[in-house]
Amino acid sequence: PFGVRSYHEKVIDHYERPRNVGSFPKGEAGVGTGLVGAPACGDVMKLQIKVDDATGKITDVKFKTFGCGSAIASSSFMTERVRGMTLEEAGKIKNTEIAKELCLPPVKLHCSMLAEDAIKSAIKDYNSRRKPAAATV
Ligand code: FES
Ligand code: FES
């Protein structure tokens, strides 16, 4: 009934070989950091974007997730998805898209929500660093 096999394959692939794990060196220019937690389970996700000021495009992404396999897979997927996007495009990604792509079951929806929250929070952080006076999001 449910795509059990593809759930396992895609999630496990991202879980076992997560892409873009790590963080940028402290103080690196053009970086925005999102740090979010899931109240339901206490899992934490940190997602960082590196943005080219001139084009407003995300040139690099890194994450560290302390959480379940679905949260790790969601953040790994998110890093691949937003690379090369403008901030505006990246800010529109919905957790439902990630959940669908990874075939997450309903109880794991909040894991993908972490990834949506994290990218939004990273964009907000980048914008606030860039123009502190006009930080309107
Ligand atoms: Fe914490 Fe998902 S409940 S890992
Ligand atoms: Fe809580 Fe996955 S982030 S169970």
UniProtKB/TrEMBL annotation:
Pathway: Cofactor biosynthesis; iron-sulfur cluster biosynthesis
Cofactor dependence: [2Fe-2S] cluster
Source domain of life: Eukaryota
GO-annotated biological processes: iron-sulfur cluster assembly
Stretches assigned to the NIF system FeS cluster assembly NifU N-terminal domain: 7-131
UniProt entry keywords in alphabetical sequence: 2Fe-2S, Iron, Iron-sulfur, Metal-binding, Mitochondrion, Transit peptide
Main location: mitochondrion
Annotated GO MF terms: 2 iron, 2 sulfur cluster binding; iron ion binding
Pfam families per record: NifU_N
Cellular localisation: Mitochondrion matrix
GO annotations of cellular component type: mitochondrial matrix
InterPro entries from the UniProt entry: ISCU, NIF_FeS_clus_asmbl_NifU_N
The protein's role, per its UniProt record: Scaffold protein for the de novo synthesis of iron-sulfur (Fe-S) clusters within mitochondria, which is required for maturation of both mitochondrial and cytoplasmic [2Fe-2S] and [4Fe-4S] proteins.
Family classification: Belongs to the NifU family.
Protein name (database record): Iron-sulfur cluster assembly protein
Gene that this sequence comes from: ABSGL_11395.1 scaffold 12295
